[in-house]
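Problem 12. The chain below contains 255 residues. Write out its predicted structure in token notation.
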Amino acid sequence: MKRVLTTLGGLILFSLGSPAYGQGKDAIEAYVSGDYERALADTANAADADSRAFAARVLLAEAICRDGQPPAALLDTALDEANAALDRQPGHVEGRLQRAIALSLMVRPMSTGEARRSGLGSEARDLAEAVLADDPGNLYAHGFLAVWNLEVVRRGGPIGAMIMGASLDKARDHYRIATQIAPDDAAIHWQWARALAALNAKKYRGDIDTALDAAIAAPVGSDLERVMQARAVQLKHILDTDGPRVAEAQALDML
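Solution.
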């Protein structure tokens, strides 16, 4: 579906994979194992920016592990936590990334008009770009913007992409940098493959297969990464058995 957008409705969920700095051992172990309730409880009484950004990460990890669109209340709480981190430290990198992810998830189910009026997708892009301005080698900001560009190209078509300054070339550049930084990151490869498949599974089949194979082969260290890897296996199977058209439709529904 081609339409001009001034926001992004796609999901880009990258900075959820690696443990957060500044957290206690129990909180990190709970997060890695997928015990998100315990991870939140272990950090509930901490008011520093790192802890609030970590809480946002935990809530968004829980959101991505669910099937379908996450509940609005869960996303609202994650956004509140990211905002709390930024209130305490306005330039907090993790806080900005988690806010960007929460905004992207919120925009995902919106209609074209709602998305355009909300401005949330463009704000998510701006947050990631601001992180790169401060930290040009930030893996997850590059991963975020790789998929952001693909989603704008898909949803906006040529005119929408031009208005937003998005392109396939920019997407590839960000993905290339991300994979140079972390060649074996399952989340980076999975989200790239999913977004390419949603864009045009037939046209980009070779690139999709390469990224899916990389995601499937990557070592994983958290429950969330295992979920993403399992989804890569699922999409690969659909491509091989049902073909690009079915895989494209499936990719549009996957997180």
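Discussion. The chain is about 75% helix and 0% strand. Students who got a different answer should revisit the alignment rule from Section 12.3.
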